[in-house]
## 1
Amino acid sequence: MHAAILWNQVSLNDSAADLDVLVQCVEVESSLRRLGFTTERIPCTLNLEDARNRLLQTRPDVVFNLVEALGGTDRLTSLAILLLESMHLKFTGAGSLDNMLAAVKTTTKQRLSQLQLPTAAWITPEKTGWQGIRNVNAASSKVIIKADAEHASFAMNDSSIMTLVPGPQGLSRILQRLRQESEKHKTPFFAEEFIEGREFHLSVLSQSEEPLVLPPAEIQFVDFPDSKPRIFGSNAKWDINSIEYGSTVRTFDFPATDQPLLDKLQALARRCWVECGFHGYARIDFRVDHNGQPWILEINLNPRLSPEGSFASALAETGVSFDEAVRRIVADAMR
């Protein structure tokens, strides 16, 4: 069996978030070879004809899709999937429609709302009012400014948290900030109610019948000053020299009193997978407020497979080897 690994071509000048795909390529390729596959890496750029010609030459039995961005933006990742679909190739992970759903956070949130799955209220510069079910006009409300179609905590830092002043003036200030960020980064931004509380990542892996929901991982904010927002931002993920990188700790150890919450998180993650019809593997990010209510932040249909990521850590906690996970992901693609 021959497997092609399709990945978004990067350069050494790219950010740590972009370069992480190289680590994933090594891990996946090594695993596929241990599983008995021959492999070939095929880089993908916006010149899709090059990738198409390489795929035509090799005619792989399956393509392991690791494309996370094209043309410098996450918004175009669906183009690689559309290419694979047009060639009638078997490939890992989500199809183009599911990927388009998850690639844009506000589209994901609309879908979650339709399914009556809890997601924090949000607003975009194009809307005149808040969407969702939370009361964001309370005097104590805070919002977080996010890129709508970029991932890996793009441009997310302490200044992303804003206090929402009640009334039209407060709303106008938020909308002005969204327009400023959109212009600065050349990509749309939106505001989401900031859920004060705990953060959890739940990874999901396909298996023959219902999906396997891996143990919840909590991101703990260790020794953060009271004035510092508890967010898993860009520095915490990618800047090894930052305070945030060393002070955000992933844990799978919980007191018995947390079990009802953990069960609720796993049930919600399973509902997301089943009701949205996902495939292969995914990661669903949550915040849990002080009342113990989980809120879905976003869905990652192409989560990091590098060893230090939440998905690989959850596999290790479960006792499922990385090779077994790759085998299941590929088997799902072959079906």
## 2
Amino acid sequence: MLPAYVLLDLETTGATPVKDRITEIGLVRYENGMEVKRWQTLVNPEMHISAFIEGITGIDNTMVKDAPLFTEVAHELLEYLHGAVLCAHNVRFDHGFLKSEFKRLGISLRQKVLCTVKLSRRLYPEHKSHGLDAIIARHGIHCGARHRAMGDVEVMEAFLDIAAAEHGVQQLQAAAQELLKSQSLPVGLDPKLLDDMPEGPGVYLFYGDNELPLYVGKSVNIRARVLSHFNSDHARAQGMRITQEVKHVEWMETAGEFGALLLEARLIKERQPIHNRQLRRERQLCSWQLSETALQAPLLTLVNQDEMQPETLGHLYGTYRTKRQAIGALRQIAEANNLCSQWLGLETGKGPCFSHQLKRCKGICCGQEAPELHYLRLKQALISHQLKSWPYPSKLGIRETSDTLGKSVIHVFEHWCYLGSVEDEAELDSMRSTRLAFSFDIDTYKLLLKELGKSRAKTLLL
């Protein structure tokens, strides 16, 4: 399949590399299509194996009690991996654990990887499931030790043999090479970036020849998203320009996707990258403010973003980039709901409005409709565009926890404004006493509104 590759599987105490440990390693090394080495060992994880994990793997605390520590097998494992592509089923899992274990020893693991799940998807796209159990059932593979390291490696061996027989060795090799190619960086970028780039959530920044970023993006998997920029077909010219101009990549990890979204929005507004158009919002937004009574004319007044205040948000409707866009949207609402363009402030003059002459206004402008009824119909027509008042008596925190980073972060808001993120009680106490300089931002408003709509959002009043 490849000049040199290692089929590997790990058993572990859990699913989180930063806190869980390896309990078993199984691998087979191939060179030029021939098996050259086969190795397996239990590993003392130096922590308790739960009954749940024992039930899955069959590995208990007694079995690993006298097994070697990872530090005792690390050198031998590196020799097996040297110069080879690491192949595993869901390789991110196994690679992540190996990187964490070696990191504890002060070693930075730099290994090309190939995922046999992705290989299965590429060779057998007609099938929905590509887990080991699905592959076993699909191809009738015998597995005498499922969820043991060498047993699962032997399933991968059998799958590759079947794939080579059904598709041919050349097609199998081509599929593997394509997957490896998708993990490469363009010439000019340091290939060591791949070794350090995290596979968790955060924000990444592309730089050209100066200190101003070309582009800021976010992802739940920074590594995969950055690589996708350099390995897509670039149907849009902008994508091609970005990849051609990039000379340097930086990233910032976050506790989760919400934190990444907040950080992305803030960095784009602060640094104004040339290729981020949607979130830059260089112009001020405007919104329609509804009068407090049915007899106040005009019923709607256009207010700019810097005029918005916390107490008036519930009386604002829609957000628009320009006055022209706001007027156009209001005209559509008026026509769809038979509202008076004079009373809305879209038309000047006295007597029947132009819309009434076209039978598109129910006649408040000529005494045929009561102002209170017209006002009620206007409020009903605007309800889907209404901005929400701040529903909390104080500041609000949303907790986001990262098992990968091993930390918990609280994102703090007040009146829909993002005040910052804190990691400890001292920072949180300081944030509680911070006075808000209100500045409405529609992107933060939408992000927070969406997050609060999720049942998993962990909120706390501050």
## 3
Amino acid sequence: MPRFHPFSGLRYAVAGGRLDSLVAPPYDVISAADRDRLAGSDEHNAVRVEVPLAEEGRGGGDKYRAAARIWADWRKAGVLVADTEPSFYVYRMGFQDEAGQPRQTTGIVGALELAPPGEGGVLPHERTTPKDKADRLALLRACRANLSPVWGLSTAPGLSALCDVSGPPDARATDEEGVHHRLWRVSQPGVLEAISGVVASAPAVIADGHHRYETALAYRDERRQAGGDGGPAGAFDAVMAFIVELSEEQLDVRPIHRLITGLPEGLDLLGALAAHFDLRATGSPDDGLPARMRDAGALALVTAKGSWLLRPLRATEAAAGHDLDSSRLDVALAALGPHELRFQHGVAKVVEAVVSGQAQAGVLLRPATVAQIAAIGAGGERMPPKTTFFYPKPRTGMVFRSLD
């Protein structure tokens, strides 16, 4: 079963704990424009190490060396200060779901012991891509720190009850989407023991951050082979993780859609997709399209000429293996011929990319369910990359974990 430990976090030394101008989203949802806006909000914004630029480091070098210099400067100058004793951190995100209803996601940030996927009670649910792992590994080698947490789902009941805290938070921030992020440090020995015990009582499914988890595992193996130099024994044997009880009440799972470019000139895209789906023209790709998809049991295709509902044929469902739109679409894309695929969350952003000509087509998917995520993880299988988008995203900068 997964071992989950408290750690002495590094946190911004800010009076009152207001971190609005200092925190950032995780790296994989930050655009170039987002990066510029965040870096401009404060010279110590976490994006400067989460998505580094070579020109921001002292003395030149590549972007990873720049991140390491910035990280070291912040610690030396007291911008970041370590907590005096090992702690867990209750992290709560308050937001509105897509129906406009108020929701909360609450979990515990701690150090999750690393194990190969499928071992040690830690179960992945998505495949990863090599490029992202190479980038995160280079950054981890340079900074020797967990900058943002992976997101795990505990299959044990009772964790949510241990997240019931009182009093003002130790850190808080409101992000650009109006999500309220709050963090409480918990250091009472009895509570720490109870949290570790609950998480260790059942497997945990990696919900978000598969690249960071596998990167941390690769880094652990490197450090072990090198004799564990440069830090306390075992610091690199774990990764900072945000563990939430696996329940519908706690989770808001949204889809990640597909943008298609690079199709051969003159390709009949509708004809190619008709070999795998029953196509039916639908209305404009407005806010009502996801509901039409849900009612029809269909994906949706958006092009400059219109939009269509795509109901998978039985042969497509059988070939997909999983009861997931991402798996069904992969069957069709494999037979499509040369093309390039990008991932995008948000219906409006997909439509904008198609209308502006940035993409030749967009395919909208329905979200995976919490039950599907749990079942696929428990079965030792994996979804296609970028199947699930957990909302909202924990912010980088609420707490860091040093490996030195």
